[in-house]
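Figure 6 in text form: structure in, sequence out.
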């Protein structure tokens, strides 16, 4: 919802800064999500001045151009070539000077430059109204009737309005604030300034020549219906003050009568609708529902089938408007309209909400009606709108005010205890301050005693119906920031932070691995003691033996998950399924320190081709880096970003890495030792990881940080390094971080080469460096300096040769 500051000042006197008003509105519950400048004329007519045409003669080389000299207040007159047919000497005109930017009604903006047009110098432009955004006319240049001195800024003549506009994120419960007057009421409560409704003391009925009968058949859906007729109106475009008001909040002007209804809506929060009186056949308005399936064509020219519960505004024979939602195409105000019936009603929020949802129609009117409007505002808004329509469209009020209000909607009566206010707020607010806040919120106070009082809440506050709601009203105006927290925060103040759910984490991890092509397996925890005894990589004394063995092959509890994975691979390979990716959540068991212990593990294993055979995809065999990538992605899922990796000493691997964080070993992965594979009779290369699941879960989400996405672009630079084979990528990373941690955001190896061309014991890394400054756009000088510094560090620390 957009709220104009100048518009707001019509109802409350504000001298505070825009920033302070924004803070106060936000603190009272009307969160200001944005603040923008509004200019009635884009660009504010900057660089445009009043000038006088001194001379005007035909251009020597162009029949349709004129060569003029214009006094714009400088020492010398400015030569300007003009193509307008009506330019003449002696005219006062609007001149765009060299350097000014024009924003035409249609088309792109453009800048005025010194030019030569058909050989004649032109230092500016004499403007038509559409060229500077003032109107649609392009028949010729504007000729002004003014005595202002030449060189006077054009904005001093036209006086275009400028404004500040608040973008407020209105919550559904605050229907009372869905207007400028509603926002003013909140500022009254915060500042104590008086608010005032528009003056309707001048309202009077001119005659009763066009009376209309109103019949409300469904008073549940329409508890109050008000209206009057205005005859002799002239439908034209709206005056500038009105169009400026509507444009400031993003509304497009339509015509003077419709614009007034929108103006009153956004001023007071009361929707209005103007009917062409000639379409009110029988001079009768009937508020009722129509039979199921009745066709109706609305203003958007679409035919809809009505529901039996859609409330309609009808004439004697047919529907004219979906009540509170959308008008009909036949009964709306058009250029030929001379007499109108002006409606101001209070409709049931439930009826309007259901109808708007049913027909997928969301309008400014339905937005307010379905949340709840003020039943006491209908006649006030009606009279003010009638006064304004007479002002901008002429005419006479030609009927008495019709007000069908069979059962008055009562105020909410809410008893309140001071002790409950103190308990819910957490501090004791002085009783006088409480009553001052409520009074400023237009909530009446009765039966005031030392223990409490009774609140009388006006019906437009549809969200204040209980004692707790009254306390919320007090607190939001008093200020949440004014409630100090206790020195000792107990559980009554702080919500519990839920512990990580192991089952949910396991489910997410399983889904992640499955999405990367792995299949989950589940193996027996009983295994043969031969695996431990024949490899010698595990301690035979730590095996947990089964006392009542079913067989020797199932005689001990497993100390590792690796043989379970290999047995599953053997089974599949023997059945011609050679491309395998498995994972398993399982337990390992040990006899330690005179007792028994078990550990939760996650195993990940890969063998065979990377992908299934296909004509358009290479199917190379799985490598160490494929498993390493999966491990890195998995650690990232656990938000583990600073894990250390060192070559493993675990003998079941030919080569591999140990992963740890803060000296806590999380697991190991690498290429399996052939001796281990031979025991299970698997000859294909197998890459395997065994991670400590319990330790991983403890790390889950431990350090969750957020950093705002940079507004400035990234820059990529590539380097090719020839280095010794024993130099690891981790060493390269550490050098880069140490040298330029602030600017180097990411490093990636996109090519590795080993061969005769670079020498024995060497390897070549092609690296990409992503550089970015969070505070500004990087320039070439900074980028070059950073890359030279990195090159120097690589040469000095790891003996790198930079390939060019």
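Output sequence:
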């Amino acid at each position: 919802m957009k709220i104009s500051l100048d518009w707001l000042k019509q109802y409350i006197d504000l001298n505070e800064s825009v920033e302070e008003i924004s803070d106060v509105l936000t603190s009272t519950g009307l969160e200001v999500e944005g603040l923008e400048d509004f200019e009635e004329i884009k660009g504010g007519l900057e660089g445009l001045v009043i000038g006088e045409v001194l001379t005007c003669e035909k251009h020597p080389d162009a029949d349709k151009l004129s060569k003029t000299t214009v006094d714009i207040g400088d020492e010398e007159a400015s030569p300007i070539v003009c193509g307008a047919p009506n330019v003449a000497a002696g005219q006062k005109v609007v001149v765009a000077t060299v350097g000014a930017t024009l924003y035409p009604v249609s088309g792109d903006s453009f800048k005025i430059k010194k030019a030569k047009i058909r050989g004649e110098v032109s230092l500016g432009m004499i403007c038509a109204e559409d060229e500077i955004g003032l109107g649609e006319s392009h028949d010729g240049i504007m000729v002004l009737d003014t005595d202002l001195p030449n060189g006077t800024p054009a904005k001093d003549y036209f006086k275009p309005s400028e404004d500040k506009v608040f973008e407020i994120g209105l919550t559904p419960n605050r229907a009372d604030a869905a207007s400028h007057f509603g926002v003013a009421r909140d500022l009254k409560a915060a500042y104590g300034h008086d608010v005032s409704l528009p003056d309707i003391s001048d309202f009077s009925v001119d005659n009763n020549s066009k009376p209309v009968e109103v019949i409300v058949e469904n008073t549940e859906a329409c508890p109050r219906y008000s209206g009057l007729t205005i005859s002799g109106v002239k439908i034209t475009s709206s005056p500038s003050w009105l169009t400026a008001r509507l444009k400031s909040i993003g509304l497009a002007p339509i015509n003077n009568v419709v614009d007034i209804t929108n103006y009153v809506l956004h001023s007071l929060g009361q929707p209005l609708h103007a009917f062409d009186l000639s379409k009110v056949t029988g001079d009768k308005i009937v508020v009722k529902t129509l039979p199921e399936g009745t066709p109706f064509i609305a203003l958007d020219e679409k035919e809809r089938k009505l529901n039996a519960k859609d409330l309609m505004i009808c004439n004697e024979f047919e529907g004219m408007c979906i009540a509170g939602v959308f008008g009909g195409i036949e009964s709306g105000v058009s250029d030929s309209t001379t007499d109108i019936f002006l409606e101001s009603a209070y409709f049931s929020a439930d009826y309007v909400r259901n109808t708007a949802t049913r027909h997928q129609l969301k309008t400014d009117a339905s937005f307010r009606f379905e949340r709840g409007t003020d039943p006491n505002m209908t006649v006030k808004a009606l009279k003010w709108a009638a006064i304004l329509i007479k002002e901008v469209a002429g005419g006479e009020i030609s009927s008495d005010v019709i007000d069908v209000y069979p059962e008055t909607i009562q105020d909410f009566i809410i008893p309140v205890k001071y002790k409950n206010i103190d308990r819910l707020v957490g501090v004791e607010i002085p009783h006088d301050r409480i009553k001052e806040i409520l009074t400023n919120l237009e909530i009446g106070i009765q039966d005031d005693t030392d223990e409490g009082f009774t609140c009388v809440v006006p019906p437009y506050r549809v969200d204040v119906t209980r004692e707790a709601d009254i306390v919320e009203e007090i607190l939001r105006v008093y200020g949440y920031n004014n409630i100090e927290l206790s020195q000792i925060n107990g559980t009554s103040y702080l919500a519990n932070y839920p512990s990580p759910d192991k089952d949910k984490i396991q489910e997410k991890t399983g889904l992640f691995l499955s999405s990367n092509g792995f299949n989950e397996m589940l193996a027996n925890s009983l295994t043969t003691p031969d695996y431990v005894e024949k490899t010698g990589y595990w301690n035979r004394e730590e095996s947990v033996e089964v006392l009542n063995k079913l067989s020797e092959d199932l005689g001990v509890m497993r100390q590792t998950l690796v043989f379970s994975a290999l047995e599953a691979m053997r089974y599949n390979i023997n059945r011609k399924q050679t491309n395998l990716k498995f994972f398993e959540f399982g337990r390992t068991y040990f006899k330690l320190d005179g007792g028994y212990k078990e550990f939760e593990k996650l195993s990940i294993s890969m063998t065979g081709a990377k992908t299934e055979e296909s004509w358009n995809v290479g199917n190379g065999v799985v490598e160490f880096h494929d498993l390493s990538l999966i491990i890195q992605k998995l650690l990232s899922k656990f938000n583990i970003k600073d894990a250390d990796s060192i070559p493993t000493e675990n003998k079941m691997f030919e080569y591999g890495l140990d992963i740890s964080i803060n000296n806590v070993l999380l697991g190991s992965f690498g290429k399996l030792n052939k001796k281990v594979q031979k025991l299970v009779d698997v000859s294909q290369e197998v890459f395997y990881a065994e991670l400590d699941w319990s330790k991983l879960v403890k790390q889950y989400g431990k350090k969750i940080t957020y950093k705002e996405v940079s507004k400035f672009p990234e820059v990529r630079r590539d380097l090719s390094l020839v280095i010794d084979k024993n130099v690891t990528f981790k060493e390269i990373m550490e050098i880069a971080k140490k040298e330029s941690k602030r600017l180097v955001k990411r490093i990636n190896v996109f090519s590795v080469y080993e061969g005769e061309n670079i020498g024995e014991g060497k390897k070549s890394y092609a690296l990409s460096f992503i550089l970015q400054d969070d505070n500004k756009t990087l320039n070439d000088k900074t980028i070059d300096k950073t890359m030279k510094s990195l090159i120097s560090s690589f040469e000095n620390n790891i003996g790198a040769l930079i390939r060019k």
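Caption detail: Residues 607 and 684 are 7 Å apart (CA to CA).
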